[in-house]
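Notebook entry, structure prediction.
Reason for the run: the old model in the group folder had no record of what sequence produced it. Starting over properly, with the input documented here first.
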Amino acid sequence: MTFRLKFTRIFSVFAISTALTLTACSINPVSGKKDFSLISENQEIQMGLQAHNAILKKQKPYNNTRLQTYVSKIGQELASKSHRNNIHYTFTILDDPNVNAFALPGGYVYITTGLMAYLNSEGELAGVLGHEIGHVTARHGVQQTSAGMAANVLVGLLSKKAGGNSKVLNQLGNAMLSGYGRQHELQADRLGAEYLARVGYSPKNMIDVIGVLKAQEMYASNQQGRSGGSYHGLFATHPSNDQRLQEVVNAAKNIPSAGSRAPNRNAYLRQINGLKFQISKNKTGRIIVGTVKTAGLTFETLANKSAVGAGQLRLLNGRYPNGQLNQGELIKIIR
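New structure, fully documented this time:
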């Protein structure tokens, strides 16, 4: 995916024009400590709005007001309990078959129909949104943009002294940015788990989300003979799913949760009934949610009534690689 690269370019014109008037340090809302930043909160919000408008010109929102409202309601509740509940948040479902979610600085959060198809509970949806809210609250996009600006300045200065060895200097700049990426993803997982707990979900729902990503990776590997990437696989240097699982499990164990809120699997499945689903490059279908009425029904048998095979049905329903159906439960197929 290239969203992050796109909005970084959008930011760069605005940010560089104002950088000389800004302080290089600001207080991080999450840690309470000083962070390197060339962008104020007001400028962050302006930049986010500009990038948001640019994205919506290229990617259309999913045309379902009811589902958009559902996602926004959950997102707003999480955001209200976050470290930055003083800014306005906007949550948007993008009509995009790719498995992805991302956030812009200033409170703009996006999730694709492609990712929503593979989630299986409201708790998992909250886990995705909580993770992306974590990127906003910790000002990761601002730090990334500031680091990019600083790297460009540093490369320019060193280039004059080093005789213009651009290859080595560009590697230096890239190394600075890649370090931020690894750190940010792990912190966003921890923050997401914390926000889940604050609104009553179990932090385990965040672990379930990472399980969805792990299953995607396994399925892609088995189907294509290569390692698949999660929606955070924008860069090869991001943490692998295994590392994410370990980090989130360890952090979530220490977060007190009321546990008063169920993951609401059935409620979520009913909300996504009819969701657009890309079967192949040139073929689109819809998610159909129904009840398993027959004991012993298998995914292999169910595949005869679906537009995708048993393996992908297991993946869609959170049972990959070898989970089975239970009589009386709600299940997804593709028509």
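Summary: Residues 1-23, 175-180, 233-240 have pLDDT under 50 and may be disordered.
The old model has been moved to the deprecated folder.
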